[in-house]
Design brief:
Elements lengths: L2 H12 L4 H13 L1 H6 L1 H5 L2 H5 L4 E10 L5 E12 L5 E7 L5 H17 L6 E6 L8 H15 L8 E4 L6 H15 L19 H18 L9 E5 L3 H12 L3 E6 L3 E4 L6 H10 L7 H4 L4 E4 L11 E4 L8 H9 L4 E3 L8 H9 L3 E3 L1 H4 L1 H16 L5 H25 L6 H19 L4
Parallel strand pairs: 3-4, 3-5, 6-7, 6-10, 10-11, 11-12
Antiparallel strand pairs: 1-2, 2-4, 7-8, 8-9
The protein binds NADPH dihydro-nicotinamide-adenine-dinucleotide phosphate and (2Z)-2-iminopentanedioic acid.
Length: 444
């Protein structure tokens, strides 16, 4: 049994109830096999065992009262996975599905993603099973204040810097930051994704979606191709999906379908993003109402059907395991040529294998959605420098980060004999920096 396989076997034994964490770990560990053969010092120093075990897991009670005075207890999590490259950095997710497995899978992915950005950030992730959907602003505020009442003691601008993820947007970051500031008496860059009026960075809102398109644009450019005239399907209708769709449209593509967790819209004329933004960002409503407002658009209940919409480019931007093997085969049959993961681990292993086998250009999450956290790191730089960069400056830096990621994952894949396999390229390029940082810092 190889080193990677024996570490994986041990992880499975130790974490039997963490399927998402094991799924992420398996993909990473197995793709690192050629690297581990070339670097025997990693095994000698137990780098993989350390790399897959979070430095710290914080689990806490979050009591809060709803508008009718009823008391609820949710669980809060923060997994401080790796500080090898920099302070822990990664989002908070508020969704009923959040458990330790989800937070650990996201944390492990975040370590490699953050390394790939080339910026000095380690990896962490957190969240809660709390569901902000259907709650009043006052309820969300009370929950965020309670959550921060415990979390604040574990975070700081040079220790751990949380941000948003599913269910955590500008409203939640505002409430979390307000409570953090009250508890510590400090106005620092301890959370990113802050509003522009209190230290946030321009472009952070758009960054993950724009970054996804910048990476894809580069992958297309080197193949003599581009977005103009292409048909695109984007799953999700949240922060990542909306701004990926916006940039794709700006580059001349037609986005014909999107979904939220109830169902998908198909608009052959190209989705009207102003309507989607109004429904999701202003009203916090359901996408089903899009078809009532836009002539010629269709709404279909249920999500999976979106992958049967023919397209050149598919961008899964909602959640983990939303694109399975069957859906991948349907997309391939219908002529898809490029797939870019805006969400974290949205494609199942069977789906990813089908894309790789068919020669589809497949850009995996830890490279493709790194623009969000990269821009968070730019927000951190502006906070500590007490500076404020223009939209154009941040956007140019984001673009440079994404182009650099493309070069690194492409070169790493080729160097280890897997040209064009960006899953392997992203895992290898991300890992090498983390492993070397760990070796340099001794047994800690
Ligand atoms: P949001 O909460 O803004 O949006 C999530 C969207 O996905 C919503 O439209 C939601 O539908 C939909 N969705 C959520 N869960 C499901 C589900 N189980 N089935 C179908 N649709 C679902 O989150 P983000 O856009 O911020 O995050 C989306 C993905 O991108 C996540 O995987 C996240 O980890 C990843 N990501 C986010 C980054 C960021 O900066 N925000 C950075 C990098 C990655 P509904 O409206 O019905 O809830
Ligand atoms: O998955 C992710 O990279 C994020 N949710 C963004 C994290 C961040 O710190 O900006």
């Amino acid at each position: 049994m190889s080193y990677a396989e024996s570490v994986l076997a041990r992880l499975k034994e130790q974490n039997p109830h963490e399927p998402e964490f094991l799924q992420a770990a398996e993909e990473i560990l197995l793709s690192l096999r050629p690297v581990l053969l070339a670097h025997p010092e990693y095994e000698k120093n137990a780098i993989l065992e350390r790399f897959t075990e979070p430095e710290r897991v914080i689990l806490f009670r979050v009591p809060w009262a709803d508008d009718r005075g009823r008391i609820h207890i949710d669980r809060g999590y923060r997994v401080q996975f790796s500080s090898a490259v920099g302070p822990y950095k990664g989002g908070l997710r508020f969704h009923p599905s959040v458990d330790l497995s989800i937070v650990k899978f996201l944390g492990l992915e975040q370590v490699l993603k953050n390394s790939l950005t080339g910026l000095p950030i380690g990896g962490g992730k957190g969240g809660s099973s709390f569901d902000p959907k259907g709650k009043s602003d006052a309820e969300v505020m009370r929950f965020c204040q309670s959550f921060m009442t415990e979390l604040y003691r574990h975070i700081g601008p040079d220790t751990d810097v949380p941000a948003g993820d599913i269910g955590v947007g500008s409203r939640e970051i505002g409430y979390l930051f307000g409570m953090y500031k009250r508890l510590t008496g400090e106005h620092t860059g301890t959370l990113t994704g802050r509003g522009l009026s209190y230290g946030g960075s321009l472009v952070r809102t758009e960054a993950t979606g724009y970054g996804l398109i910048y990476l894809m644009e580069e992958a297309m450019r080197v193949r003599g191709d581009g977005f103009a005239g292409k048909t695109v399907v984007v799953s999700g209708a949240g922060n990542v999906a909306i701004y990926a769709a916006e940039k794709a449209q700006e580059l001349g593509a037609r986005v014909v379908a999107m979904y939220d967790s109830d169902g998908y819209i198909y608009d052959k004329n190209g989705v009207d993003l102003d309507v989607v933004k109004h429904i999701k960002e202003v009203e916090r409503g359901r996408l089903s109402t899009y078809a009532e407002r836009v002539r010629g658009a269709e709404y279909h209940a249920g999500c999976r059907g979106i992958w049967s919409v023919p397209c050149d480019i598919a961008l899964p931007c909602a959640t983990q395991n939303e694109l399975d093997g069957e859906s991948a085969k349907t997309l391939i049959r219908n002529g898809v040529r490029y797939v870019g993961e805006g969400a974290n681990m949205p494609t199942t292993p069977e789906g990813a294998e089908a894309f790789l086998k068919s020669g589809i250009v497949f850009l995996p999450a830890k490279a493709a959605n790194a623009g969000g956290v990269a821009t968070s790191a730019l927000e951190m730089a502006q906070s500590s420098g007490r500076l404020y960069w223009s939209f154009e400056e941040v956007d140019a830096r984001l673009k440079a980060v994404m182009h650099n990621i493309y070069r690194r994952i492409d070169e790493a894949a080729s160097e280890y004999g897997m040209a064009g396999n960006y899953i392997a390229g992203a895992n290898i390029a991300g890992f090498l920096k983390v492993a070397d940082a760990m070796l340099a810092q001794g047994l800690v």
